[in-house]
Amino acid sequence: MSEAELHVLRARLNGGIRNKAARGELRRGLPVGFVWSEADGEVRFHPDEAVVTAIRNVFARFAEMGSARRVWLWFRSEGLAFPLQLHARAEIRWVGASYTAIHQVLTNAVYAGAYLYGKTRQETILDGIGAHKKRIRSLPRSQWQVLIPEHHPGFIDWQTYEANQQRLAENTRPQPRKGGGAVREGGALLQGLASCGHCGRRLHTHYRERNSSPGYDCAGKVLVENRGVYCLNIGGVQIDHAITQAFIAALESAKLTATLTAAERLEADREAALKQWRLAVERVSYEAQRAERRYRAIDPDNRLVARGLEREWEACLKALEAAKSDLARREAARPHTIAQQERDHLLALGPDLVSVWNASTTTPRDRKELLRTLLDEVIIKVDRDAFAAHLTLRRAAR
Q1: Is the pTM value of this prediction over 0.70?
Q2: Which of 102, 167, 233, 313 is 20 to 30 A removed from 254 (C-alpha atoms)?
Q3: What percent of the chain has pLDDT over 90?
Q4: Is domain 2-172 annotated with CATH 3.30.40.10?
């Protein structure tokens, strides 16, 4: 009877927890950037402006770059710290940004304003010797116990979150017979965009000879006279040149509007980084003022405590000077703002996209990013008898 009563009590308690979670009122651990309010089920942004700014920068940079790794590299290149909170009652520590932290922010649905419960399940299995062993299994979204979209204000909306998840999936594991994937290094312009016109598979890239000339080949082998051959295996120099000419011709009417937009985006990115550095200076300044108040509040005769507080105050002052010097150096290196007169002058000069495309400062990654703004797929079909390649450029409706 006692075991039965314990089972009934446990079932009733678990039922109450699930009912409260179904209403979105069960208080669970929140990711950094959110805090629970006093009202039941109310979630608010973190009161620290620096924390909110760092999270917003993650989503803003991902919308621009389209890759979690490139967002992480941007944080590292700018020298920006990232908030870390081990649990709800722990203080926020500012550490160097890691790829894992950036990826968790991009994949957590709570940042899209959703309430989640029951994402994992505990299972009991038998190991090699027959002993019971428990493990935690992550469940797909269709098996989550509670999912309430628009439960609280988020950094992004639900549609943007789903688009981000699809983009992350395409970066890591492109679907078979489809293009995509994150932009990578290498001179092959159609990396991730080229597909075979014979079988529809995504083409692979290769580099040959001393100058590493790019080429494209299809891994779908067929049998010809009992021998396996590729659908196509072709050099990429002439193909990339033809694609470049078509791309520049399609953008001829845009003039320098795209260049001005890129300059404005660069300025916005720099301003976002400077804002986070200014907030960091404010945070270090507060810590220095707090250390000073603690030092002045202690009895001067108690030298055992005063010496420790004095060292803490001096360390905070050094950190404040270092933060101010870094901010001044970055503000001095800030790119020049384009004035309205310079903007009109640039537009009057006419298009010069060829020079921008062939400039030494334009990297192969930049060219691939520019190409993907207009093209979604390039279908290559080789006519071996005519020694010609037919290219079909496909652009999705935007």
Answers
A1: no
A2: 167
A3: 8
A4: no
